[in-house]
Amino acid sequence: MTQIERHSFDVVVMGAGGAGLRAAIEARMMGKSVAIVTKSLLGKAHTVMAEGGAAAAMGNVNSKDNWQVHFVDTMRGGKFLNNYRMAELHAKESPDRVWELETYGALFDRTKDGKISQRNFGGHEYPRLAHVGDRTGLELIRTMQQKIISLQQDDEREFGDGEKFIKVFAECSVQEIFTKDGAVTGCMGYFRETGDFIAFDTAAIVLATGGIGKAYRVTSNSWEYTGDGHALAMRAGGSLVNMEFLQFHPTGMVWPPSVKGILVTESVRGDGGVLKNSEGKRFMFDYVPDVFRKQYAETEEEADRWYTDADNNRRPPELLPRDEVARAINSEVKAGRGTPNGGVYLDIASRLPAEQILKRLPSMYHQFKELADVDITKEAMEVGPTCHYVMGGVETIPDTCASPYVKGLFAAGEVGGGMHGSNRLGGNSLSDLLVFGRRAGLGAAEYLDSRGGAAVAIDEADLQAAVDAALAPLNATDGENPYTIHHDLQTVMGDLVGIIRNADEVKDAIVKLDALKARAKNVSVAGDRVFNPGWHLALDLTNLLLISESVAKAALIREESRGGHTRDDFPTMDPKWRQVNLICKSDGTAVEVTQQPVPTIPTELLSLFDRAELKKYMTEEELTALPEEKN
Amino acid sequence: MGYKAKFRVYRGDGEQGGLENYEVDVNEGEVVLDIIHRLQATQTPDLAVRWNCKAGKCGSCSAEVNGKPRLLCMTRMSTFDENETITVTPMRAFPVIRDLVTNVSFNYTKARQIPAFAPPTDIKAGDYRMQQIDVERSQEFRKCIECFLCQDTCHVVRDHEENKESFAGPRFFIRAAELDMHPLDARTDRKSFAKAEQGLGMCNITKCCTDVCPEHIKITDNAIIPMKERVVDTKYDPVVFIGKILRRKPRETGKI
User: Fold this and answer.
1) Shortest distance, CA A535 to any CA of chain B (angstroms)
2) What SS3 class is residue A46?
3) CB within 8 A of A510, min separation 6: which ones?
4) Among candidates A85, A61, A134, which has minimal Cα distance to A430?
5) What's the angle, vertex CA B238, arms to CA B233 and CA B244, rounded to 5?
6) What confidence tens digit (pLDDT) does each residue in A521-555 have?
7) Cα dihedral B209, B212, B214, B217 sign
8) If you placed Cys at A5, which of A69, A157, A198, A566 could pair as Cys (CB 3.0 to 4.6 Å)?
């Protein structure tokens, strides 16, 4: 038998982005031993890419802000499909989670009175995003990394062993989660550096693996985003919710080709940047949908006044939620009003003095200067939609982040589903991972307490089978190159299950994905197990294919357009579909999608909305069932 | 627009290996990392390289291009002549694992040795008040993406493995400076720690670290020199010296 390094921990956290690190901190503070398993080096996770900020209704810049307004904005942004309880917890707890980071050493930008500064962002009624220039994600991840060191230093002092309670396993990929009688018993994986196998006997696993962007070619996501947690959860018996909803961020770089898809932060628009087509027109005024009509300016003059007087003017339409802006850019380009490289113009140069741009958007300046040789203080940027975020994810119980199907399985951050409904607001991701990262760590600790200290162990035959499966691509000869299959997968998803979808194309995609699955079984890679990227990709492909199938199958069933799911054969939002969540489960080979009712929003939360607004989302029956209320 | 570029890439592990020659397609607007990826996809599927964000934000793809420490994702092909042979090698200061991937655990070990931020005991979460001007100095150092190019280029360790034990390196001098300049950090021994435990004295200010920093952090001018000056101030200023004895501060050596 292949040699396998064996460990035992109370909790294994998969992923070392914001959600994973926050979960690990919480589980440790609850007295549990924690393994942090990360595909990259510590501190490199995708959270570093988050630029804009963390949304939290602290009310530092506009004192009218509070959790209720944040909740309303989040539900409105998600087109009322959000799990209301998650949106409620998120809105209520975000401020505490942000303030807590200051006690770990974070240094946010400040207001004049010394509080944490907050910036405007799409879909947020008030300036709400705590930020550090345009590198907020880096600040979050570094802060939590340093908090973990701080906890390890405490353990070193107290127990003489800094890794007694928290140990980081860097460049380590988890391949399989094991269960017995519906409860987690452990997981196995391999070290990327050496190819050596490792197994963890553990009763609690927190998935914090991020998203699935690598199913698409034009994406802001890195190689890590292969849907590992999504796929592992399904294979372990868990479920995914809302997988049809993908966020295409409206502003990715479109030139040069090698950086196509890399993110251009929404802060550019939050700080005054405007979108123009090739005719020089600020086209977003033509794309304000009825549900948002009341909150957005109708003229450029009003929109421009808003930046200095938000109380008496409505917001510029460039700050509509991301799904709206992405579709608008898509339409402009399709109508032939795009830039030479197939995007639109994002202009901050004519809107702010150069020194302000350098101060507020330093990393954007740097990114364009170095990668595209464009000086954003002098010229407009060329931007277009890029696959950015998956709203869908592992279905969990909101308060504990626990899977309803697999005992001991938890999920937080992008890999979790439900919080953002059909579309996530910018800034709600960093706060999501803080709020639910903490809750997942807490949930795991409470689960361990409730089950007592009974030992768990992985079934040896299961472990051996997982090792054999992992070695298959290296043992095979004359199979297909994984890079080719990955390339073809990205073509299928981008062309047929992209930003605009229809039944025929999605059906075609499902057939093609089936063929790709067959080809992937026959993959072979050259070289040995030592840092072999071909082998790593071959293993990640299994996950990518399973989640791509989930996205496509759910996208075919949902016959309406809502948030991050646009069907040109069903172009409008249908209140009947608002009552339905699509749930994906899998036996590991194929994906089954079932319908499940969306949890009913309690009256006290519904009363935060005008009836006129609810009418846009709810069926007649739902509206008549509502108690008579304010208006 | 495209052309075929000549590349020499280090292939091998820590024990043995050497430069191998490749000819590979280059398109307009590409960076060195694109070319490495094209090699992987078309000629050498097992060529090892670390990378994540491909936008100069995560600091994973550090290596040396024509002997110069660089982020591969931020090194544009247009900066080279089309006839030039481009040599890509792993960072020299760290042990090679495979091809362009090195073992950078030295840096994580040094990170764990710096005493963490000490929150003020009398201010509760939510009540922290700091002025922008006071946080900006530390914020400059918190821009660090931990690419470790400064560590790689620093001649104190680049060719002197024996110095690694007692020398933390520029990345961790800015961490010390960042904490020293943090308006609310409760510890007062950051400078003496840098001198006593981090080997700040071994730095002789050649500014190589500043030159290679992709975030353009003024490591030498804004962190190392002020820390050195302050170390000198506090160590030799007789008033400070006597004051310290009178106050009998614990942990003055910075031991954690």
Assistant:
1) 8
2) helix
3) A549, A552, A553, A556
4) A134
5) 85
6) 999 998 899 889 899 999 999 999 999 999 999 99
7) positive
8) A198
For range A480-485, the mean pLDDT: 94
Q: Which residue of B has its CA nearest to A170?
A: B105
Chosen for mutation from B1, B25, B58 (greatest number of chain A CBs closer than 10 Å) is B58
For residue B129, which residues of chain A lie inside 8 Å, CB to CB?
A: 113-115
| Nearest Cα to Cα of residue A242 among A391, A432, A413, A428 | A391
A371 contacts chain B (CB < 8 A)? yes
A49 Cβ under 8 Å from any chain B Cβ: yes
DSSP calls for A152-220: HHHHHHHHS-TTSSEEEE-SEEEEEEEEETTEEEEEEEEETTT--EEEEE-SEEEE-----GGGSSSBS
- By C-alpha distance, the chain A residue nearest B35 is A258
**Partners of A130 in the β-ladder:** A54, A118
- pLDDT grade, residue B236 (50/70/90)? low
Can you say whether the dihedral through the CA atoms of A606, A612, A615, A616 is positive or negative? negative
CA distance A221 to chain B (A): 7
Name the residue in chain A with its Cα closest to that of B124: A103
Q: Over the stretch A328-342, which tens digit does the pLDDT of each residue have?
A: 999 999 899 999 999
Q: Taking residues A471-476, what's their average pLDDT?
A: 94
CB-nearest partner of A49 from B57, B125, B128: B57
Cβ within 8 Å, pair B27-A258: yes
Q: Which of B104, B132, B182 is nearest residue A41 as measured by Cβ atoms?
A: B104
Active site residues of A: 249, 269
Kindly list the structural domains of chain B, giving each domain's residue range(s) and its CATH number in brackets, ordered by start: 3-102 (3.10.20.30), 105-246 (1.10.1060.10)
The pLDDT of residue B55: 87
Closest chain A CA to residue B104: A41
The pLDDT of residue B2 is: 87
pLDDT at res. A177 = 98
Number of residue pairs across A and B with CB atoms under 8 Å?
179
d(CA A45, CA A40): 7
Contact yes or no for A68/A550 (Cβ under 8 A): no
Q: Residue A217: CB partners within 8 Å, gap ≥ 6?
A: A261, A487, A490, A491, A494
Confidence of residue B256 (pLDDT cuts 50, 70, 90): very low
CA contacts within 13 A on the Cβ side of A625? 10
Residue B8 has pLDDT above 90, yes or no: yes
- Render pLDDT for A103-146 as a digit per residue (tens, 0 to 9): 999 999 999 999 999 999 989 999 999 999 989 999 999 999 99
